[in-house]
Amino acid sequence: MKVPLLLALLFGAVSTLHLRTVKSNSESFLGDEITLQDGEMPENEPKEAPTGELTPLEKEEEWYSGMEDDPEEEGAVECDSALDKEEEDFQCPKEEDIVRLEGSPGCKNCPRFLLVGHFRTFNHAQYVCQRCYRGNLASIHSASSNGQIQNTVRGLNQGQVWIGGRVTGWGLCRRFFWVDGSRWNYANWAAGQPSFYGGRCVSFYTQGGRWLLDSCERQLRFVCAY
C-alpha cells in the first residue's frame, strides 16, 4: 500500500510543477506583447533615419526633382548662351545689308518684307527680326506673297533663306506653325518635302520658291516680316 501511495504523491508533484512552468511562459509571452503595444519597435522593423539623413524614398524624390530642373534639350541651352553672347555687342544690320520688298498695292494692313543679307541660324535670325524691325521671320499665307518673296531672293547665289516656319512633334504627330503665331493655312513644299528625316525649321528655295525642312543650326540669309 505504501508504494502506490508514494507513486501517486510523486505524480501529483510533477503535474503541479508542469502547470507552474506553462503559466510562467504564458505570462512572459503576454508581457512581451503588451510591451510592443506600448510603442516599442521589434528588432526586425525599420528604424527611423537619423536627423539630417534622407530615407531611400526621400532620396528618390530628390533625384526626380533634380531631373525636372534639367532643360529638355541641350540645344536650347546652347542657343540661349549664344544669344546672350551676341547681345553683348549686338548691332542691327546696316541699310546696305538689307533689301526691302515693295508692299502689295492697295493693301495698307498687309505685312512688309525685307531680306537680310547676314548669315544666321534660325533662332538668331528670328532674334534680329524682333530686335531690329519689331517683327518676325516671315510667315506666308498665299501664293502671291510667296511669289513676292521669290522675286526678291531669286538673284541670290545662296540657294535658301529662312522663313518663319517650324515643326513641333514627331512622326505622324508633327505639326507645322509660324513663329509669329499666325495660322498655318498655306504651304509650297518642294518635291519629297516635308521630309521625316529633315530638320525642324523651314527654309525657302531662292530658285522656284519651294520650301523644305532644314537644320535650324544652319546659317542662312533670312526674310523678316514687320
UniProtKB/TrEMBL annotation:
Sections of the chain in a coiled coil: none
Domain C-type lectin: from-to ranges: 110-225
Domain of life of the source: Eukaryota
InterPro entries reported for this sequence: C-type_lectin-like, C-type_lectin-like/link_sf, CTDL_fold, Eosinophil_major_basic, Snaclec
Annotated signal sequence range: 1-16
Pfam families reported for this sequence: Lectin_C
Biased composition range(s): Acidic residues: 59-75
PROSITE patterns according to UniProt: C_TYPE_LECTIN_2 (PS50041)
Record keywords, A-Z: Disulfide bond, Signal
Region Disordered: start-end pairs: 31-75
Name by which UniProt lists this protein: Bone marrow proteoglycan isoform X2
Protein species of origin: Vulpes vulpes (Red fox)
Gene behind this protein: PRG2
